[in-house]
Amino acid sequence: MRKANLGSNNLLSISELGSQGLKHLLFLTASFDGKFLPEAQNALLGKTVATLFWESSTRTKLSFEAATKQLAGQCLNLDKQGSAASKGESIRDTVETLLSLRTDCLVVRHSSSGAPSQIARWVDVPVINAGDGCNAHPTQALLDCYTIQSHLGDLAGLRILIVGDIRHSRVARSCIVAFKMLGANVSVFAPPTLLPVALESWGVELVQDYNTALERTDVVYLLRVQKERQDEAFLPSLKEYNRFYGLTMARAKFLKDHALIMHPGPINRGVEIDNEVAELENAVLTEQVANGVLVRMAVLYHLLAEEN
Amino acid sequence: MNRILIRNGKVLTGGGNLGGNLSNDLGGEKLDILIEGEHIIGIEKDITKNIAKNSSSKLIEIDASECLVAPGLVDIHTHLRQPGTEEAETIESGSLAAALGGFTAVLAMPNTEPAIDSVSVVREIKELSKRAFCDIHIAGAITKNRQGETLAPMAEMAELGVKMFTDDGRGVQDAGLMRRALEYSSNLSVRLAQHCEVESLAAGGQMNEGEWSSKLGLKGIPAAAEELMVARDIALSELTGASVHFQHLSTAGSVELVSQARAKGLNITAEAAPHHFSLTEECLSDFDPIYKVNPPLRSKNDVAAIAGALKGGAIDVIATDHAPHCADLKEQPFEDAPCGMLGLETALSLSLMNLDMSPEDVIRVLSINPATIAKMEDQGGQNNGAKNNSWLAEGNVANLFVFDPTEKWIVDKTKSPSRSRNNPYDKMEMTGKVMHTIYRGRQVVADFKLVEAELEKVLA
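YS: structure for the whole thing
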């Protein structure tokens, strides 16, 4: 079945989804939030969604599972541990195995950028990218757009500041495309070693002064700093990172009253965000997780049940 | 004795200038070529009258009237995967692909398993090469097991006829060791070739570093990783006086460095692969590992620089870097898939299509120059003891091929004699078709197809 609002029968990236598709999914998410889609309650009845997580995850995997069950679908879960994948089975063979179990949709996470796109070329059931390498994490971007929208309304004209390891972040790649697609002004701030190469091609502003940028922004979006970045000499120390790039209580005071503090989780307290900051009223971290289920319901409903 | 008569083709003897326009002007002097046994015994206009009619030996006649006749192509960068990875390619299957591409000689790279780093492996390959459909020359490793730690027995391998050495697949990282290798080999009448890649900059890299790698979230390989080693080896060539050959150069910066070094009179030669003047990094946008190759596909600017350097002469050679890989490996997640693509069957067409060069100049960089650099005997050019400035001459070994520079064909990867299918040009239309290949006086390709009788002789 070909869908009107999505360019393809997959969700691989925000750019492939396009602005119309993005807005439609946000509209559906809002509908699920208000529960005025009673016909969706059994939308996935008799359908099986397989989550293939070759890389570990807590919230993304659980929320796909929860979303499937809310829509009365069945879930098959494959984790790298304890599966044939850990015995060296190829991803193609694993995918074939799942398809022979009559799976209607594949939700894929992989540490290699592009793995969901590769799989989508082999199968004719919808493939949803649940995060691939440093490339994309479209459902995260959707839930972040929805979270911002539910607090601050239309994203058009909002200032969003993204801080942290943008170079290695699939969340940043998807969020930046989505935020810009909805008309927000995006700026970034990070140690230069953690900025992406060719940043000038991204269409974002590079912040020079952190405090001024915090004063002006409507949203500050913090990215997780991965500990191994220190070993790879991207950073001298996490302590130094916290001092110059972390959102400390002192810096949080620069924020406007309505400004949101966001983070895709899991957080490193005391590194990119101070303990007390994470507890502030404007820090909407748990709300992001809750919205994750709604957004994934919208995506599954759209790909598997929605009529044109 | 077998005889072959090639009638009425425009023969590229290396003396003239055929011009860049492929669509016309085959009207110049057309010659006939007569081959007997392994050798060319006559090249002249309308040779028929001199053929002894009563001869009892079989005469194969080839009509080349719409075609060019050229010395057989020479690839000095071929991965034949034998010994060790016979499921991907063998000397025999690779040589069949070479013959279909118009090649009569290839240089087998040493990154086999085991690596070509000892006389026993050299001997094994020589033995296997008896079943090949083109000459198989051997490149030995510079260091043992290509580990970059201790020198491989280059003198022993040279004694068996190895003329080039490289750790291809890797560059020799240690500058001090590379200096010793250049010095040690300087009296062996061989040439060292470098895969230019500084691993501390390139490690883990998946594609060219730039706008596309940034967008796709794939780790980049910066141009500097190649250029640093090019610059280093130019300095080492100057220090030691030794010649250095640069393999598969891919960046505008490398071209500039090589041009400067040659202007200084250093003995530097260089090659580029067809994909580096035909494809750009943009091909990676769908994460298809078929386009994953090392050095990676670069930017449009680099592609233009490589094409310009081939035309201008800063790069001497087109070498395929034919790198077969089994489908199951190329179907792995992008970051796990191996680097490399097939190249032997498409090199001539891609060169004719994508370079602003006359067919004669294309043959120069695909046959004469590589044969000279790798010191190959029995290929066209001056190394065979034949007349100067005559690429095809009476008395030469008959290694030549007939091609139509304007004929179009569609690539079908399933039809290749290669054991692998990692051909990025599958289903693409090509211009310039290899019609016949004559290897040591045997017609191995006729009308764009392998000659069954020749196959049976060897495969029986």
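YS: worth flagging: Residues 1-7 of chain A have pLDDT under 50 and may be disordered.
IM: good catch. Also Strands of chain A lie at 48-53, 74-79, 105-110, 127-132, 159-163, 185-189, 205-206, 219-222, 260-262.
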